[in-house]
Amino acid sequence: MFPSLTTLLRGALIATAIMTAGAASAAEAATDAAVTPLPVATFAGGCFWSMQRHFDDVAGVTATRVGYSGGPEKNPSYNQVASEVTGHAEVVEVTYDPAKTTYEKLLTSYWHYIDPTTVDGQFCDFGHSYRTAIFTHGEAQANAAEASKAAIEKSGVLKGKPVVTAIEAAGPFWPAETYHQEFYKKNPVRYTSYRIGCGRDAALKRIWGDKAGS
Asked: For the chain, where are the E strands, in sequence order?
């Protein structure tokens, strides 16, 4: 018995729908593959609450996360890092749009928001986890970071003090606990109290003058 015309038409429609869906999926996959992820920069500069608040306001930055990097332990907790047993630093991971800013501009913003002459600490926070460091992603970032560090030292703004900020190839980034992400927004009173008590703004003004970050 031959299939009816209705059956044949239904089969043809189903086959066409399958082919169309397959083509659409392939097109979507090609589009996804063509989208280049935005670059990231990773900076350690003392308290990551303050570092995130600072970079959230920098032009061209599309996203930030705070976390831990620079140590061998996998997925460390805040308590472990703060106990100085993991070797990690508190860091901010900065995603940026290269059409709107450059890595060099991010470096300038970074320098002006830290004290690059203090070993293992920043302002009121002390310990290896509060050290300053630039964790570079690739040779281009490493070269740019080294050049910017040399320029800072040559400028004389630090009055002869050496820059102790390390420049290292980035290793794994471990996101900090949820309550640390955008802490300054979730707990504005507590963060403001910490920021004023820590004296970061006043110290930055003494180091960098009008170029100090905020």
From this structure: 40-45, 61-69, 89-96, 121-122, 125-126, 132-136, 166-169, 174-175
Contact between residue 161 and residue 208 where contact means Cβ atoms under 8 Å apart: no
* Residue 15 and residue 54 in one domain: no
Among residues 38, 147, 148, the alpha carbon closest in space to that of 93 is found at 38
Catalytic pick among 40, 47, 170, 204: 47
**Helix, strand, coil: what percent of the chain each, to 5?**
50, 20, 35
Q: Is the pLDDT of residue 44 over 90?
A: yes
Query: Are residues 9 and 84 both part of a single domain?
Result: no
> What CATH number does the domain containing 170 carry?
3.30.1060.10
* Tens of pLDDT, residues 97-142: 999 999 999 999 999 999 999 999 999 999 999 999 999 999 999 9
Q: Which amino acid is at 208?
A: W
- Catalytic: 198? no
Q: Which token pair is 45?
A: 């500069």
pTM strictly above 0.85: no
